[in-house]
Design brief:
Oligomer: single chain
Structural class: alpha+beta
Radius of gyration: 18 Å
Number of helices: 8
Shape: globular
Number of strands: 8
Distance between the termini: 26 Å
Length: 188
């Protein structure tokens, strides 16, 4: 599971068929990418080969440049969800609670309110970010789960995906969070 991550409903994703960014209309489980360059975690550049070719995911096996029919069929088929593979009932309840408290719909609503409510709405955004941020190491320790698997269980951290709303989080020296506007000249 540490090789996977979850894109949660409402998170911006690239539409590989139509192009552009759209909010995910459902949960998607994806293979993690390498940090530098975004290449597949299992692609070995030196050998120009996939290290798990015989056991590669369906999304990879269906990609054929000369015929996109199989990929389009897979693209339109039902997707794997976390609840399909997680058997731990306690963990499933915790995932549901995180989804309830930290949904992208709730985050979007609080961000939208910043212009009218100011600091009150900013505090609500920060509450969501802090809950999501602190939940991961706490549960990794309490449930004996690898930290590397947290992006699979809980999706990518809101402190990273907040950029989809034109905002970014800067960590303060005291450990606090500072929410700022994303510099429009730099989309990193």
């Amino acid at each position: 599971m540490e090789h996977l991550y979850t894109i949660r409903r409402g998170e911006l994703v690239r539409d590989n068929v139509e192009g552009g960014l759209i909010p995910a209309d459902q949960e998607l489980v994806k293979v993690r990418e390498k940090e530098a360059g975004g290449a597949c975690l299992f692609y070995e550049e030196a050998k120009k080969a996939c290290t798990i070719y015989d056991k590669r995911p369906a999304q990879c096996a269906s990609l054929k440049c000369w015929d996109t029919a199989e990929f389009m069929e897979l693209y339109q088929s039902p997707k794997l969800h976390r609840h399909d593979v997680i058997e731990n009932g306690v963990l499933l309840v915790l995932i549901e609670e995180q989804e309830r408290r930290c949904s992208y719909a709730a985050l979007k609503d609080h961000v939208r309110r910043i212009s009218g409510e100011g600091e009150k709405a900013v505090e609500k955004v920060l509450e969501l970010l802090k809950f999501d941020f602190h939940l991961r190491p706490f549960l990794a320790q309490k449930l004996g789960l690898p930290m590397e698997a947290m992006d699979f269980f809980f999706g990518r951290p809101l402190t990273e995906t907040i950029v989809m709303f034109g905002l970014k989080v800067e960590r303060q020296e005291d450990g606090g969070f500072l929410l700022t506007r994303l510099d429009s000249r730099n989309t990193d």
